[in-house]
Amino acid sequence: MRHSVLVALCLGGTAFVAGCQGNTDAAVQRAVKDVNVIDQSNLNDIMLTVGDPNEAVSYFQGALQKDPGRVDLMRGLGKSLVRAGKPVEAARVWEQVVAHAEGTNEDRVMLADAQIRGNQWDKAKATLNTVPPTHETYDRYRLEAMVADSEKNWKKADSFYEIASGLTTKPAGVLNNWGFSKLTRKDYPGAERLFAQALKYEPGLFTAKNNLVMARAAQRKYDLPVVDMTQTERAELLYTMALAAIKQGDVAVGKGLLQQAVDTHPQHFEAAARSLAALDGNVVN
Hints:
This protein is mainly α. It has 3 domains: 42-130, Serine Threonine Protein Phosphatase 5, Tetratricopeptide repeat (Alpha Horseshoe), CATH 1.25.40.10; 136-229, Serine Threonine Protein Phosphatase 5, Tetratricopeptide repeat, CATH 1.25.40; 235-285, no CATH class. The chain has helices at residues 2-10, 16-21, 25-49, 53-66, 71-83, 87-99, 105-117, 121-129, 138-150, 154-165, 172-184, 188-201, 206-217, 231-247, 251-264, 270-279. It is elongated. 34% of the residues are buried. It comes from Fuscovulum blasticum DSM 2131. This is Tetratricopeptide repeat protein.
């Protein structure tokens, strides 16, 4: 394939041979390097999307050893470390990217993301403060909302969540986060509304289904919401509801829900069965 590209580069004069004879070795090497860059860019994209996270980390580390200082490779390493569940290491890489001559405001947002994942909330807040107000993106406001949440600045959190949800065509994740924020504040009706809204955008988001059940159970609504669910999910949601009922002192209701969960699950539901046995006083040590 590379040979064909080089041939095409030479086909600019009246004669192929005459055109190529005019090329110096340096020109040929530059052409080959250009093709290599294109090939590597494609591979970088593949490693970031479908590659195993740990393999991607190794790939970008190796690429940076051969070509240190390349900001696109540094970004790839930072993203791969986050995917591999190594946010603290990722934050160190993103710090280098931000300090790079080609560092951008979006890189600062990525640094804040890694810092939050690594539970470095103060650092994340400081990083976001360096991003100018004109940089209005979904990720920026999503992270601003999470930082405000961590400080229990509910008014600011609500404002940022609302802005973030309006800046994406796929707001299910941020609506779920917003709902969980409402849940921790014990604003159960508000949480219920947001979880239901998240599921309209992403009906298969089980986390939102589970959170929705918790918000409803906190209001003593012990019936399952009308949402799409598999039989296994139905059993798991009944189990969540049962535990919430028991925690609130509605033990008889919880016991009935546990039995439903055991009966509904297509396989043996060990956790629900164990909880039911504990209520019956039949736990075997």
